[in-house]
Every structure is written in C-alpha cells, then in structure tokens.
Amino acid sequence: MDDAAPQAPAPVDGDRPAAEAAAPRSRRAVLTAALRAQVAFGRSLAAAGEDVEMHGTVVHEAGGRVVAAYAALGALAALAALLWPLRGGLVLLALIGSGLQDLDNRWSWVRRLVPRDIGRTVLAWRGAATRPADGGPPGAPVVGRLPRRRVLVCLPSDALRSRDVRRWAAAPVALGIGLALLGALAGAVDLSAARSILLAAAGLLGACMLAGLVLDRVVRESVGPGSGGALAGRLLHHLRERPLQHIDLAVAVVGGGALFHDGCEVLIRNHANRLPPDQTTLLAWEPAPGPLTHVARDGRLRMVDADPRLIEVAVALGLPARVRCTAVGRAGSLGWRGLGLAGGVDEGERVVTSLVALLRALDQPAGGRP
C-alpha cells in the first residue's frame, strides 16, 4: 500500500462536511484512507518532536462479515435440524455460546473463522516531567520493583465514522437463531410446527447473511479518517505547555476494530511489559451521538466497574453516567482498569478538555497508583 500521499487530519468540531451525505464508497477505499491518515498523523507527531511508534495489526473493522458468518452457520444448522434435530440443535447452542463470548469481550470460535482487516496504531510516548527513581525513557519496560505510574489514552482513528449499523445488526441474527433453536427443539419432540419454523429461520438467516455481506462491502464514507488523530494532537498540545509531573503518558490512536475493540486488546497485550496492568490506567473515548458521558459500568454482559476516583472527576465535570461498551471494558476483562467516555461525537473540544482534566487528577504526587 502506498503511503506517500498523507492526508491531513480532518477537523472534529463544527458542522460535518457534506461528504457524509454523499454516495457510499467502497470499504477498501475507506480503509485505505484511514491507513494513510494514520501515517500522516504519525509523521506530523514525529516532526513535532514526539516519541512516536507505528504498529500494524489485524482487526475486525466492521461487523458485516461477523454477522454474515453467524447467519450462514445458523441457516445451515437450521436446515440440518430438519434431518437431524438433535445435532442441529447442538450446533445452534454452540452458535449462541459463541455469540455470548463476543458480547462478553472475548474471542469466539466463529469470529476466529472470519477474515480480518489491516489496521494501524499510532502510539506517542510522553515521560513524566519528574522522573521516578528507576529512570529510563518513557515506555521502557519496568525495571525491578519500583513502580512507575502510567496512563494510556485510547482514541479511535475514525472517530466520526457512522456507527449506526450497531443498532440493528445483531437483532435479525438473534431472532433467526432463536427461531431456529425453537424449531430444533420442537423437532426433537416431534411437533408438527418444527419444519415450518426451521425453514422460516433458515430463510431469515440467509437474508441476514446477504445483508451482512452487503454491509461489509459498502460502508458510509468517513467524515475524515484522521479525526481521532486530530483529537490526539490537541490533547498532546494541551499538555505541552504544562506537562504531567508524576505519570508517564501514552496516547494511542487505534485504527480499526471499533466494534469489538480488537485494536486496543492487541495494543495492551503486545505492550504489557511497558503498560503493566497493576501500574497503568486506561482512558478511552467511544464516539457516539448525543452529549459526552462517562461509563461507570463498562461492557455488554460482564460489566467492568470504572475507577471510582475517575468517576468522581467525571461527575465534577458535569458528565452524566451511562452504560456502554468501550475499549476500557475490553481491557478490563484482561485486568486493566480505567474509565471510558462515550458520546460527544460533535463535541471534540469537550472530549479533549475532559481527558486533560482526568489526566490532571491522576497526576498527583501522593504515592497511590492510578
């Protein structure tokens, strides 16, 4: 992929450009634009003197392929249940268990079968102005037992891309699997309605599969694939004149994987030696329509409680609470703690100032870890 033509990050605030209402462009073109924007952002940070790294990864960029995989397997299982009710029912139970794993911030066996997309993460390291006794550059592995407090800020690279598909993508799949399971159970006890229910479920799931594939091939145009980078640039600028004194900071603009937060998991797993769970606090923003809020309980099934200290700061900032799944919930299932912000897709400046306030609250000289 040619990265020689960087694109400047798009502005975040104000009215959205008319491009959002334009005809959809191919999914490949959107992903290519996002990758180029990441490169442009990384180069701009390096030119400003930041300690920058760029990491490639593979993620599930959108839910279309995953929806199609569940629908296709569910339809096949429903048809198989016409001949072998018990076996078909067991396959459907396995699909339901797989879906629960995905909702619980884990990797399911179905999602492991689905091809992933190329992503890129830009990571900027900032050392504390007052270095701890163990010394070393920012982001260096922990030496000995001396604690070094760190904060990781995760921002999506495509902060303004439409995520409206989340509202309906899972509903037809869940309905179809439920009908198919009901038909398989009915067939097991020789009820006459079994065949009609199974055929209806197979047809519905087949339609879901086609919808998922179409959704995966054609996506709405992003309002600037570098919008997350624009927020990260503002955040670093805010901290340049008044640096953090007692904590190391890593600001990550994570490319791809916004639906499942794969990019965040790959990042923290690959950098666990530099961002150990017991010394690292995670702050993340999940763009969504509506006012900016804080996520006190993060996740879909297994809820992760946010850091109480950060909740107090968010409440003092006037940010209401909501329940949502952000990158903090995914990281929380792996042992990291922090606080997620959600909403405020048209309030870029407030997102930045809220993150700065949370960082200032964590930047305390007293010995407590974040």
Structure description:
With 370 residues, the protein is an alpha/beta fold. The chain folds into two domains: 18-62 and 117-162 and 222-362, Zn peptidases (Aminopeptidase, 3-Layer(aba) Sandwich); 64-112 and 164-219, no CATH class. It has helices at 27-47, 64-83, 85-103, 109-113, 170-188, 194-217, 227-241, 262-270, 308-316, 327-332, 348-362, and strands at residues 25-26, 51-59, 117-126, 150-156, 218-219, 248-254, 280-286, 293-298, 304-305, 321-324, 337-342. β8 (293-298) and β9 form a beta hairpin. α2 (64-83) runs parallel beside α5 and α7 (227-241) packs across α11. The longest helix is centred in the middle third of the chain and has 24 residues, at 194-217. The radius of gyration is 22 Å and the shape is elongated. The protein starts with 24 loop residues before the first strand and ends in an 8-residue tail after the last helix.
Largest sheet: 9 strands, mixed
- The dominant shape is elongated
Strand content: 15-25%
Number of domains: 2
Radius of gyration: 22 Å
Global structural class? alpha/beta
Please state the oligomeric state of the protein chains shown: single chain
The CATH class name of the largest domain reads: Alpha Beta
Count every beta strand, where a strand is a DSSP E run of 2 or more residues. 11
Provide the helix percentage: 40-55%
The overall average pLDDT, rounded, is: 74
Q: Helical segment tally?
A: 11
Task: List unreliable stretches of 5+ residues.
Answer: 1-24, 142-146
The CATH superfamily of the largest domain is Zn peptidases
CATH architecture of the largest domain: 3-Layer(aba) Sandwich
CATH topology of the largest domain: Aminopeptidase
Order of helices and strands: EHEHHHEEHHEHEHEEEHEHEH
Give the end-to-end Cα distance, rounded to a whole number of Å. Answer: 40 Å
